[in-house]
């Protein structure tokens, strides 16, 4: 299967190198930057870009609409939290945007791993209950997208009567659904509804184990794809790449006043907890998976890096592909320049190697 590359765009140039969450005003919108950032990803042969979500961020549908207007083929993966918009309305919003972007959107479902952030938007459900709600939400969304007749639905969280939408997605059978979640309650929900199950950058053995767990929970006969999110740090030599990695870490630690993550400060999100556990086990896993940034930031998001030359990082990314991952989400600490570098120096190498292996497999078959 061909490999898919996803980047990430924000509405202004910020990253962990500008300060910890809560000190960065990343809700300020700079249209010129969004245009430049999106076009850099398109030129770099990224398939999509992720538009993130938190309780104070710009609306992802609006960002995608603008970014699509200044690009031609780039896709957009819009992070979306179930529960804040009625599922029938969310389905129509997404289907409408799918037409105006000529079928270039996908939806990334993030149920939410932080009670505090959920509560900022008025959501007081606990973690496990949120996943039950997500299950119902996605059931309704998919039916709105695909049903040719009105339908009724009555569940624990939603009740609709004669629900129907005249607008159906341009993409068939429906808009792709990506899904993130590392807790035990998230797996059956994601395995049931997702086209792509997303994971943060863990060691290869752990990724293989998680893939097996999700596949085991999927409905019989369902084909799932898998995504891993990583932060490549490049250098013209391996030594220079590690020097840059240490500079990035020093800057992040400096901005946080040297604060260390303690057990009492561990995040609620299970995915973050897993990254912190891997960081505690060692700074480097596999060939070049580097964990200290996760430790320094409390694993707030995808914070594990691949450090090396473009050739070495490409090799490490292909290792994930060999483990069963077909979507690679890569973003840098210097967001715009790193995206340009990935498009010029890493993505072509990975695509060429994956194509070579596909040809080899086909010739054997």
Question: What does this molecule look like?
Answer:
With 365 residues, the chain is of the alpha/beta class. The protein has a single domain, classed as TIM Barrel, CATH 3.20.20. Helix content is 45%, strand content 17%. It contains twelve helices and 13 strands. The strands form two sheets. An eight-stranded parallel barrel has the order 1-2-3-4-7-8-9-13, surrounded by eight helices. Strands 5-6 form a two-stranded antiparallel sheet. Helix 2 links the parallel strand 2 and strand 3. Helix 1 crosses helix 2, helix 3 crosses helix 5 and helix 6 packs across helix 7. The radius of gyration is 20 Å and the shape is globular. The model has no long low-confidence stretch (mean pLDDT 93).
């Amino acid at each position: 299967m061909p490999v898919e590359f996803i980047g990430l765009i924000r509405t202004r140039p910020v990253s962990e190198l500008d300060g910890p969450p809560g000190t960065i005003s990343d809700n300020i919108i700079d249209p010129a930057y969004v245009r430049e950032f999106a076009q850099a990803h398109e030129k770099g042969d990224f398939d999509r870009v992720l538009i993130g979500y938190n309780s104070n961020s710009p609306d992802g549908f609006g960002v995608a609409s603008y970014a699509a207007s200044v690009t031609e083929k780039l896709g957009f993966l819009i992070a979306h939290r179930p529960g804040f918009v009625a599922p029938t309305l969310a389905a129509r919003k997404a289907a409408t945007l799918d037409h105006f972007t000529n079928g270039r959107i996908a939806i990334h479902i993030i149920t939410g791993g932080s009670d505090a952030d959920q509560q900022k938007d008025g959501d007081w459900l606990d973690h496990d209950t949120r996943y039950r709600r997500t299950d119902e939400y996605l059931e309704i969304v998919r039916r709105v997208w695909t049903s040719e007749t009105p339908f009724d639905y009555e569940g624990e969280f939603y009740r609709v009567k004669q629900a129907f939408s005249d607008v159906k997605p341009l993409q068939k059978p429906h808009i792709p659904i990506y899904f993130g979640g590392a807790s035990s309650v998230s797996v059956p929900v994601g395995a049931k509804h997702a086209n792509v199950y997303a994971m943060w950058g863990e060691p290869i053995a752990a990724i293989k184990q998680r893939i097996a767990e999700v596949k085991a929970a999927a409905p019989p006969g369902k084909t799932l794809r898998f995504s891993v999110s990583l932060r490549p740090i490049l250098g013209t030599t391996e030594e220079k790449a590690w020097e840059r990695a240490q500079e990035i870490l020093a800057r992040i630690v400096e901005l946080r006043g040297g604060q260390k993550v303690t057990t009492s400060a561990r995040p609620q999100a299970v995915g973050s907890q897993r990254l912190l556990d891997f960081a505690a086990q060692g700074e480097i896993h596999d060939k070049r998976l580097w964990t200290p940034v996760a430790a320094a930031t409390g694993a707030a998001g995808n914070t594990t890096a691949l450090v090396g030359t473009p050739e070495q990082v490409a090799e490490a990314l292909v290792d994930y592909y060999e483990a069963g991952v077909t979507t690679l989400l890569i973003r840098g600490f210097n967001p715009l320049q790193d995206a340009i570098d990935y498009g010029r120096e890493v993505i072509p190498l990975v695509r060429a190697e994956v194509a070579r292996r596909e040809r080899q497999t086909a010739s054997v078959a």
